[in-house]
Every structure is written in structure tokens, then in C-alpha cells.
Automatic annotation (TrEMBL), chain A:
It is a multi-pass membrane protein. This is sn-glycerol-3-phosphate transport system permease protein UgpA. Keywords: Cell inner membrane, Cell membrane, Membrane, Transmembrane, Transmembrane helix, Transport. One of its GO terms (cellular component) is plasma membrane. The chain crosses the membrane at residues 12-30, 75-96, 108-136, 156-180, 209-227, 266-287. CDD domains: TM_PBP2 (cd06261). The keyword Cell inner membrane applies. It is found in: Cell inner membrane; Cell membrane. Residues 71-283 form the ABC transmembrane type-1 domain. The lineage of its organism: Bacteria, Pseudomonadati, Pseudomonadota, Betaproteobacteria, Burkholderiales. It comes from Xylophilus rhododendri. Belongs to the binding-protein-dependent transport system permease family. SUPFAM superfamilies: MetI-like. The complex is composed of two ATP-binding proteins (UgpC), two transmembrane proteins (UgpA and UgpE) and a solute-binding protein (UgpB).
TrEMBL record, chain B:
CDD domains: TM_PBP2. GO terms for biological process: transmembrane transport. Its main location: membrane. Belongs to the binding-protein-dependent transport system permease family. This is sn-glycerol-3-phosphate transport system permease protein UgpE. Residues 79-270 form the ABC transmembrane type-1 domain. GO terms for cellular component: plasma membrane. It holds the Pfam family BPD_transp_1. It comes from Xylophilus rhododendri.
Amino acid sequence: MEKRVQFRSSWLPWVLIAPQMAVICVFFFWPAAQAILQSLQEQDAFGSSTEWVGLDNFQRLFSDATYLESFKTTALFSVLVAGLGIVLSLLLAVFADRVVRGVTFYRTLLILPYAVAPAVAGVLWVFMFSPALGVVAYALGKFGYDWNHLLNGGQAMALIVLAAVWKQISYNFLFFVAALQSIPKSLIEAAAIDGAGPWRRFWGIQLPLISPTTFFLLVMNVVYAFFETFGIVDAATNGGPGKDTSILVYRVYYDGFKAMDLGGSAAQSAVLMLIVIVLTVVQFRYVEKKVNY
Amino acid sequence: MLDRRPALTLLSHLVMILGVIIVAFPLYLAFIASTHRPEEIVQLPMPLTPGNYFWQTWHAALFGNATGAGSHAPVLRMMWISLVSALIISLGKIAISLLSAFAIVYFRFPFKKLVFWMIFITLMLPVEVRILPTYQVLSDLNMLNSYAGLSVPLIASATATFLFRQFFMTVPDELVEAARMDGAGPMRFFFDVLLPLSRTAMAALFVIQFIYGWNQYLWPLLATTNEDMYTVVIGIKRMIAGGDSQNEWNVVMATALLAMLPPAIVVISMQKWFVRGLVDTEK
């Protein structure tokens, strides 16, 4: 994995990596070390006194029913976002692959949500589903279904899932379109000559061949659901009603900045770090296998 | 396609049209809302065709003379803040990553493995998981409410470094040999050979990082306390501070569309590179 031919200099490489090193030391290693340190300490809200408490914060965290609840909330949310996002975008990509005329038009419109910030997506969907003035809430009411995500936890969850999926579809769609296009045409033609219909070709050839992309997207979507959806939750539901839509990232923010529980928030950060590291290792092992230097 | 099945082609178009309608509906509704007076929007059901209050709404949003319950800072100012920080994030990340990837791939130096792993480990942790301590560092350094505070902490992840590293690995060794034979030093090789070759990768990264920077929410929420330094994504959230009827939803929706305009322009105009960047590198 090394270049055969290399330059020699005792000082130049250090100059070259200095900017990156400076930035990651100040804004990555320092705060990360702080987070681990703080997770082992108890600090009062004004930061005037600090004492070592060992693993107390973690113990407190895992005996807190609402924290365990937000684990469940996050799991449900991620499964729904990743599952729906992947299935819907795969459906769109498969049909986009068949369309010849107008494909640029469709594609341009379908990738637009990629440009929308999660928080803005949250605002857009709240506007549509607002119990007082939302068009969709009104239409649902006409059909006899009462929509009020401010009171109903399940509906609040549905709202953030919809907004998150809407925003992520374009990303998944692009990958699926590219993956489908990279399947050799000869394979599909051969199958067609053998009499396999479109349905059969999809299950027998296309789906297995794009499974690496699907797996990659699965990991990316879970990471997205874990972290990048903070804006959606904050803009759409504020974690409510109650704590029904408080996903883990929202809790870290809420406990640290609103409830001023520094030790608890730091302990949550540490737990989150562990989750991300596991996810990354899974992803990296897969990516490394696929990349040929 | 190989088999001509008119019914299937028709179905494909139907699915596409349905998908486009669902995807575009929230945006359409936002546009419609921005063309009406606030009183008209709170009526049930709100009108689904354009009204004639378009100029007033967009003017109020851009220059900040709205009168709703939440914040009404001028959106033009916010967009400027967003633009500057998104540019610092994307260009800064590309610049420092090019340099460090060059050092890692083309030089042999002591502690190289350690440096490599220090950079690699930053891939794993988004700013969201170390949010509170990063905030403390920022306030210790007196960088709250500044462009640097909005952007530099977000540069501290190595995605771009790894992308460039992977790309440099595929550059043939013969090019270095030829450059050396011609008497070119490392920096000459970097500027004259490596940079021109990396143009596509840089363009793709720019799109991804610009949008990443523009769309940031949690970080600017903490790093800015002053209305003067709100980014447009933060501004829009602050606008809906009031209840449903107190908000000027027409201005909020105009702001939402303004907030997505620059990234949308970047995505659409650089669609080709963006797709290639995504697919080639799987980022």
C-alpha cells in the first residue's frame, strides 16, 4: 500500500501535514479527551466544583428509564428511516432505469431534496402537518383521521420519519441508479433471451448484483438517521410529545445544554462514540475489501 | 430496453411522475405559501394556487422587515454568513486534505503510521457526538459568534484526506519518476502534475462539502448566540418561535426556499461531477 517512488525531505512532510494536525488536535482530540474525562466527573451547573465519580454517570444513565427509552426510539426511528428510504428509492431507481425519455427531468427533480437542510425539511413537513393549518392534516381530517403530532407520540414519530426519508431518498436514488447502470447489459440480455421477464430479472440478476450498494447504503442511512436528523427532530417536534421522539443525539444536546447535566451528557457522548466506532469498523472492512489500489 | 412492453413503460412513467409529485409537493406548497398574506395561509384549507403577495413576502424575508412573532433578522445577511462559512468549510477542507494526503502518500517520515491513524480516527466521530466539549473549547478560545468558530471545527474530520489518499494511490509511479528526471522538486510535482489530475475529485468534494457546510444546524445553533451571526438554516428555525397563527408562514416559507436555493444550484449545475464523485468514492 506504499508508493514505490517517494520524495525525501526531513521537514517538508511535517509542514504539509501541520494544518490538518493543528485542526484535528484542537477541535477533535482535545474535545474528545474532554468528553471522556467529563464522563467520569460530576460538575455542578456553574462549573465551579468538579469531583471524580468513576463510572457513576454511566450507571445513572443506564438505570434511567427515559434513556433506555430513547435507545428504543432511536432504533425504531433508524430502522424505519433506513428501511423505507432504501425500499422507496430502489423502487424509483428501478423504474428510472427503464425510462428512456424524460429521465433527466425526473432525476433533477428527484435529487432536489439532497440540497435541503434537515432543519428546513423539518419546517416544511411541520407546515404541511400542522394540526391548526396544515394542508395534509386538514385533508386527513376530511377522511376522518385526526392528526395531531403535538399530542400523539406515534404521529410525531411518523412525521419525523417522513421528513427524514423524504430528505434521504435522493441520496439513495443516485446510488441505486448508478449501481443499476453498472450492471453489464449482456447479462440482462442473456437472461431475456432465456425468457426471464422483468420481474424475474430483477430478483435473479439486478438485486443480487447491487447488494453491495444496498449494504453500503444501509450503513450510511443508519449513520444518517443517528446523527444528521438532529435538525429534523429539533425543528419538527423538539423531541416531544414527552420524550417520544428524543433520539440519542437529541438527548446529548438536551441534557448538556438545556438540562445542564454535563456528566450525563458526556457519558452519553462516550456511548455514542462507541456506537459510531462499531458502525465505522463494519463499514470500513467492507469498503477496504472493495477498493483496489 | 430489450423487451418492448408498452404497459411496463407506461407504469415506469407513472411511478416516476408519482415520485416526482411526492418529492416536489412540499417545495410547491412552500412556494405557494410565500405568495399569500399570512392571514390567507392560516385559513383552512390554505389556497393551493399562487396569490399576488409574492414581492412583498420575498422582500420582507430578504431585508428583514417582517413582523411575525419569532426572529426577523434579514435573510440576505444570513445567506451571506452561510455562504462564507460553507466556502471556508469546503475550500479549507479540500486545501488541508490535499496537503496532508500528499505528505502521507509521497513521503517517508518518522511516525508516519501514527500520523495516519490520528487522521483516520477522526473519520469515526462526527461533531455531534462531542458537541459539549467542542463548544467549551470554542468558548475558551473566544471563537463564538465568528466565521472561524462556525467553520473550523467542522473542518476537523478526515473524509477528504482519505478520498485524496485513495486517489493519489491510483496515480502511476511513472509520473513521479518523470518529474524527478526533469529535475522537479516535490512541490513542483504537486502543483504541476497532481493538482491538475485531481480536478474531478476536487469538484465532487466541493459539491458534497459545500452542501454539508451550508446545511449545518446543530453546530451553528451552539456557536452563534448573536442574531447578527445566524446562518440561514438557524434563522428559519428561530422564525417559527411563535404559535401557529403568530408566525408569518409566508415569510418562513420564502426563507425556506431561499435557504435551499444556493445548494440546489450547486447540485443541479454540477450534477455530473457530483454523481461521479459519489459513485467513484462511495462517500
